[in-house]
Amino acid sequence: VQLQASGGGLVQAGGSLSLHCAASGGTLRGYTTGWFRQAPGKEREFVAAIRYNGYKYYDDSVKGRFTVTRDTTNSAVYLQMNNLKPEDTAVYSCAACQTCILSSLQNSQQYPYWGQGTQVTVSS
Questions:
Q1: CA–CA dist 50, 42 (Å, integer)
Q2: What percent of the chain shows pLDDT beyond 90?
């Protein structure tokens, strides 16, 4: 499966953005799909994931502000980001895996399929 992320942009603090991760060459049925981000000079970090069974997981830094969803055709995953903060500025990427271990969803090395990143910039 190939992934393509889009929807990034420039927004003021407190604003919202919705990221889109589209799958091609197959669907996301049976996959866990995760969102990761990487800020300049920092390591890639886990943001959120939605498992094949619909269960959702979030990093503590985005709980209550970000929501991950999947469309009913299993062809796309979304990340709705509300109340954005300057520290949310990063390149956001989506990734997918079929055999992710639940206890290690935050580990980017579990995900063999990646889309290109989309830049999110939050101004103060």
A1: 24
A2: 94
Amino acid, res. 36? F
Amino acid 71 reads: D
Q: Is the dihedral of CA 24, 28, 76, 16 positive or negative?
A: negative
**By the 8 A CB rule, do 92 and 19 touch?**
yes
Instruction: Reduce the DSSP state of residue 90 to 3 states and report it.
Output: strand
Which stretches of the chain are assigned E, i.e. beta strand?
A: 2-6, 9-12, 17-24, 32-38, 45-50, 56-58, 66-70, 76-81, 90-97, 113-114, 118-123
- 8 Å CB contact between 42 and 5: no
5-55: pLDDT as tens digits: 999 999 999 999 999 999 999 999 999 999 999 999 999 999 999 999 999
Structure confidence at residue 118 (pLDDT): 98
